[in-house]
Amino acid sequence: MSEVLTKNIYEHFISSHQYEPLVIFSPGRINLIGEHTDYNNGYVLPAAIDKGIVAAIQKNGTLQQCNAIAYDLNESHQFELESIEPIENGGWRNYIIGVVEEVQKYGKMLSGFNIVFGGNIPNGAGMSSSAAVENSVVFGLNEIFELELTKEEMIRISQRAEHNFAKVKCGIMDQFASMFGIENHALMLDCKTMESKSTAIDFGDYQLLLINTNVKHSLTDSAYNDRREKCESIAKLLKKESLREVTKESLDSIKDRISGNTYKKGLYVIEENDRVLNTVKALESNNLEEVGNLLYQSHEGLQHQFEVSCEELDFLVDFTKNTDDVLGARMMGGGFGGCTINLIKTSAVCSISEKVENAYKQKFKKDCSIYNIALSNGTHKTTTL
User: Fold this and answer.
1) According to the CATH classification, is domain 3-200+376-382 in 3.30.230.10?
2) Where is the Galactokinase N-terminal domain (predicted)?
3) Considering the entire predicted model, what is its pTM?
4) I need a surface site. Which of 80, 207, 242, 375 has the fewest CB within 10 A?
């Protein structure tokens, strides 16, 4: 978490409203492995990171009037509690008002409040800035209005805001990782039961490095929803709740009743669930080479079976295969842009970073961006000290 960012958000709230706010830090997340499995009730292995959203929030003494300021964008939005509707192309506004409305639908009473928020999560990098914003709002509202919501209830509210206002039918992973993160741990989450197991992360001479393509292809949301519909169609045909209950054998039994494209999507999810479980075992036995192999396998599946990669992501993953200093890499997030996650030898970070930056620029005539990250605690109150 950036102390400078926290101080700036706090001071902007004071200068705008002339009274003290509550300050919340809500982290973004990485996902070590387990992509597109969460909305299929599968397994994922995310972790909260030290980049995220800082929100300053407090009641303003009115019954209805709310004021939100997006510090980074120098934009604001005013709304009243009794007349909230999704905003077409509303961007960040829908995350704020979506959470507020879902809290009210949950039967909790609110009054007017002010909020200022900003962050240091790179836009479009696949680190779930939207979930971090949503969690910061619901956590802040829970504190200042003493709503007595549990963290489980808060993340469900954040998820419903994403579904009903941002119109993205996301799973629960992003909100869960952002809310429940534990420093220096990943969370093996069962998205069906909501049970999680923390896994200590100690990569020894290796570390995680994110490389951002700095591209975000425009079909992401529609393609995301299309993939979800294909997965749900398989489960429905087999009279199962989700792909979590589908085995490869049962998928093969309907192979002649679905398209080849749909079959590939279902097979990817089944295999990716197995990869998550195998990655946890490899981490527990400190078998980093196997972790790396599973990362590469995951990318192969995302590229060729689930078909959510892109040329830039594939280039970055393929580039790492030319050195022994990278054990594994894959695309991370919904796809069609964003970051790759790389398990790389710490002593080689500088040299490999320079090489990949030069090669990427030569190939695509644009820059990639490289981020070191640390694993963080989840959404929490913080101070400006």
Assistant:
1) yes
2) 12-59
3) 0.90
4) 80
